[in-house]
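User: Hey, my collaborator sent me this sequence without any context and asked if I could get a structure. I don't really work with proteins. Can you help?
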Amino acid sequence: MSFIGIFSGTGSRRAVGIAELRAENTMLLNRQLAADDFFNRLVADRDAVYAAYEAMAQRAADAETVVVCLDDKVRELEAEVTALRARIANAAAVTVEPAVRDITPGDEATQPIPCGGYWADPSAWRNRGITDVIPLQQRGPEAA
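Assistant: No problem. I've predicted the 3D structure and written it out in structure-token form, which is a compact way to encode the shape of the chain:
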């Protein structure tokens, strides 16, 4: 038995050759490069999201400023419209003295028209013998 055969082994703990180590090292380096590239892309995406958020926050602040300014302008215009409506109402107002009823000696004040029991019982007309009232639905198409 040779001395080299003792160290080479045949089981799961056998010594690995240089070519296999180089291949494994190359594979691990490639995997590390891919992971670094992916991480750099994630960082770039995160930075883009932060920049978009900051731009959105700035636009929201600008919009809020515009809303406040426009709200003040609307309040000014509403006050102006109210003043103009009051001015127009005062300019077109009819100013007369309080009405006094002029009753001449031959004139009589009006009174409610006596309607009898019809106001008390609106269905009373049905009890008075009026029978020629037929709803439109019962007349048929030729009568319409």
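In plain terms: The radius of gyration is 51 Å. You can pass these tokens on to your collaborator as they are.
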